[in-house]
Every structure is written in C-alpha cells, then in structure tokens.
Specification:
With 482 residues, the protein is an alpha/beta fold. The protein contains 18 helices and 18 strands. The protein has helices at 19-33, 46-51, 89-92, 110-125, 144-150, 173-177, 199-206, 215-220, 231-236, 271-283, 307-314, 332-344, 357-366, 382-388, 399-404, 421-436, 438-449, 455-467, and strands at 3-7, 37-43, 56-60, 71-78, 81-87, 134-138, 157-162, 170-171, 192-193, 196-198, 209-212, 241-243, 293-301, 322-330, 349-353, 369-372, 392-396, 414-416.
C-alpha cells in the first residue's frame, strides 16, 4: 500500500478559494479508493476547527517558524484517508480569508505563514510513526517542502503540481532572511528570482517529479508567453514534467441527484432542464423565454477569464437573441462593466455577484450553453461541470480547455482560438445556428454528457507518476536557466 502525504493550502470542503481547493478535495479521495493510504495536510484555519469539533489533537509539532503551541490535529475521513491539520493559531486561526483579511488585503506575513507550513510538512514526512512513500505538494504555498526534503536521506519521493504558474509566491530579500532557510538558497539556480525569492521554485527546482493540471498547460508553461519567467527552468526539467488533466467528483456533480436543482434529470430524460432553466431566468431577472438560448457564466471576474471579451460580444447585434446569466465576483472594473451591461439590456442579461454554491449548481443545470473565454486556463473545471450537466461549452483553445472541449461532427462544444472579440462572436453565432437545429443540439448535449471526467482516470495517472519517481536523492539535473 503506497503512503501519500498530500500537502496543500486548501481543499474542499474544508477551505477553498478556487480550483486548487476543488482538486485537492477530490484527488485524495480517488487515491484512497485506489488503495493508497493518504494523509491530507492543511493549515488549521479557524473556520475548519469551528466546523469540525471531532478533530483530535495527535501531538505537539515542532519545526522552524512554528509557534511553540503548535500541534497536529487529525480527523478520519474515509477508509485510507485522514485529514491532518497544522494547528498554529497565531499563523492560521484569524478572521478573514485564507490569504487575506476581511477587506481583501493580503496578510503581510503570508511568506512566514507558508514557510512554517512547509517546514511542518517536511517534519511530518520524516516522522517515525507514519512515513510516506511520496509527498505530493501543490502550488507556491507548499513549494518549500520539496526543497526542505531534498537534502535528507533517506527521504520520501516528492511530486510538485503546478495549478497556476501566475502565482509564484514572491517575497523580498529581507523577508527571505526571516524564513530560516539555508542562505545559499538565495541563488538563481535555487529560490532567487529576479531579485526576489519565489516559493514556487522550491518545487520546480527540487521536486523529483513535476506535474500540472492538463497536457496543454504543460506545453504552454514551457513558452515565454505562459512561463512567467520560469519557462527556461521548465524546459530544462521537461523530462520530469507531466500534464495530467483534472477530474471532478461525479458524486457531487450529478444532475440526477443534485439537491440544488429544482428538478433532477439525466442524459436519457432531459425534461427537468426546462424547469431549471425557468428557475435560472427567474433568479437572474431574465425574461421567461424557453425558446431563447440561455448562456451562463460562473467565474471569477478577472482579465485572465476573458470576461471583457464576452461582455463586448454580448453588446453586438449578432447576439441580440441570446440571454446570459453571470455569477461571480472579482476585479471592480469588470464588476462595473457587468452592471452596465445588465442596465443596458434588462431582461436579457442578468448578474449575481459573489459565490453561491447552490446557485452555481442551478446555473449549470438550467443554462443551455456555458461561456469560458479564458485568455489562459491551466485546466478549468467549469467546462467539465457544464458537459456533465448538458450545457454546451463555448471556450477558447487554451490549456485544459483545448484538451477537453472540441468542435466538429464528433465534438462536444464550440471553440475559438485567438483571444479576440470577433473570434468569440463568431463562435457564439455558430452556437446560435446549432441551437436552431434541435436535433443537432441534442446530439451535441448527449456527446458531452456521455464523457467520463471522473477523478478515477486522473488518479490512476497520478499513481503511475508516483511509481515512476526518481530515487530519493537530490535531483542531479544541471540547471542552466531560471
């Protein structure tokens, strides 16, 4: 039985800000179902401790950067799966979000917080009572853990997964000096990055194996356009880098059993979608027009997501007969642009701001099509949800979207390539034409709903990656770029 210490800053349902949390909440369960013995390690945020009073204190924790009152908490979750929490109240038990305060300002001590978390993970990986075969770390918040383990012998193998390279975990030299790390790590071949320390380089440089969340993104991050200054390092480590497409928890995302829908349905009987569509139209203040093609968006409202492209396309007369329901929050200028569009097209465009789990499920279960015009998208999960629920995705050809959505006679959606308004508009016009041919539309829906995007497929790939790990020693590759 392979033992896996799964290290992440967030995992649903315990703590989540986005796709990282959804992946890290689902993949450990799938690994345990394959026979792995998994310990899911998270910071003990105050919100988790408040919701799970059954957590037990296992033992005190000692590691550089941890306050003296730190401890390991644990909670069994399923056969082969246990939740572990690094309880350091001064670092993690505070009001606000995981990385920022109630006003959205990043915690000034985030580098210290997550350096201490990485130190705790490294210490637990070396503990005598439960030693993992593999330590699987995720994104910059855990990047120091592979670096801390690299010099140990014996040690577990390390895997580092890149969920979004845009977030590199940067801090200045003065902060680096406070992290109690080896001074020689301030080096371009290790953690130094253009005069700053980049936590993510701890994983990229020192982990035995690297992965990212789709084959397409694995190729993109080796280019200057998507590599954020780390493309040279990733090209150097291309032999240890693998793209594995994310999955979804199909027990949570199942239109036949989803409690958030007004009416359940399945691929063999889509009648319930009409009831859900009317509920979405009502919730977003849209005209109750069953004949209209209803487009949906569930997204962070950011430049990355290409929402501005969609807003411009929806102002074009060619899309005048499309309705659109937008759920999300993000950059103030984009929220203002959405409000302006709603004001200009009442009854046709509707928006709700913030994140609402129940409403998001209803949106997927009631819209006819789903828009995801991302400028870049490491993997994306929303296209999987929309396909599962029979909402035809309209996506840009990038990252995981290019790997999972295809247009054509045997396709499952609509795809545009350059990130320009005109190209998205052309895809929406093709969408309308397909909507007019309901026979072709039902066939398109059926192909999407028949696909398997469960974690079982992806978990098998990760298990194979674990088994292919390098010998437990410091990687011997010679770095010539950083």
């Amino acid at each position: 039985m392979m033992r896996v210490l799964f290290v992440t800053a967030e995992a649903t349902p315990f703590a989540q800000t986005g796709g990282l949390g959804e992946v890290c909440g689902s993949l450990p369960k799938a690994l345990a179902q394959l026979g792995c013995e998994v310990r899911l390690l998270l910071p003990a945020y105050g919100s988790i401790k408040a919701r799970y009073p059954a957590l037990r204190r296992v033992r005190p924790l000692t590691a550089p950067g941890l306050p003296p009152d730190s401890a390991l908490l644990a909670l069994p979750l399923a056969p082969g799966l246990e939740l572990w929490l690094v309880d350091a109240p001064a670092l993690f038990d505070r009001p606000g979000g995981l990385y920022s305060d109630d006003a959205g300002r990043e915690w000034h001590d985030n580098p210290l917080r997550f350096a201490a978390f990485a130190q705790a993970a490294a210490a637990l990986a070396q503990a005598a009572d439960w030693r993992p075969d593999v330590v699987h770390c995720h994104d910059w918040q855990t990047g120091l853990t592979p670096a801390l383990l690299a010099g140990q012998s014996p040690r577990p193998a390390t895997v580092f997964t890149i969920h979004n390279l845009a977030f590199r975990g940067l801090c200045d030299r003065a902060t680096f000096e406070q992290l109690q790390l080896p001074r020689d790590w301030w080096d371009w071949q290790k953690l130094e990055f253009h005069g700053q320390c980049a936590f993510i380089k701890g994983g990229l440089v020192f982990a035995d194996r690297l992965s990212t969340v789709s084959p397409g993104y694995a190729e993109e991050i080796k280019t200057a356009d998507f590599g954020y200054g780390l493309d040279g390092l990733l090209r150097q480590r291309a032999g240890e880098l693998q793209g594995i497409l994310n999955g979804i928890d199909q027990t949570v995302w199942d239109p036949a059993t989803d409690p958030h829908l007004r009416a359940p349905y399945h691929a063999g009987d889509l009648a319930g979608r009409a009831i859900n569509k009317a509920a979405v139209q009502e919730s977003f203040g849209l005209a109750l027009r069953p004949e209209a093609c209803l487009l949906g968006v569930v997204s962070r409202l950011t430049d990355q997501k290409g929402i501005d492209l969609l807003l411009a396309a929806l102002r074009d007369p060619a899309t005048a007969d499309l309705q659109c329901a937008i759920l999300g929050s993000g950059e103030p200028w984009l929220e203002d642009a959405v409000r302006a569009l709603v004001a200009d097209f009442p009854g046709r465009i509707g928006a709700r701001f913030g994140y609402d789990t129940a409403l998001s499920h209803l949106v997927y279960g009631g819209i006819d099509a789903f828009a995801m015009p991302s400028r870049f998208e490491p993997c994306g999960l929303s296209q999987f949800y929309s396909l599962r629920y029979g909402a035809v995705p309209v996506v840009r050809h990038t990252g995981g979207l290019a790997d999972s959505v295809h247009e054509g006679p045997t396709g499952n959606g609509l795809v545009f390539h350059p990130p320009f308004v005109g190209d998205l508009l052309a895809a929406l016009v093709r969408l309308k034409a397909c909507w007019q041919d309901q026979t072709a539309w039902r066939a398109l829906q059926a192909r999407g709903m028949a696909q398997d995007f469960s974690w079982a497929r992806s978990a098998e790939a990760y298990l194979a990656l674990y088994r292919s790990r390098l010998p437990p020693e410091v990687p011997s590759h010679a770095l010539t770029h950083a």
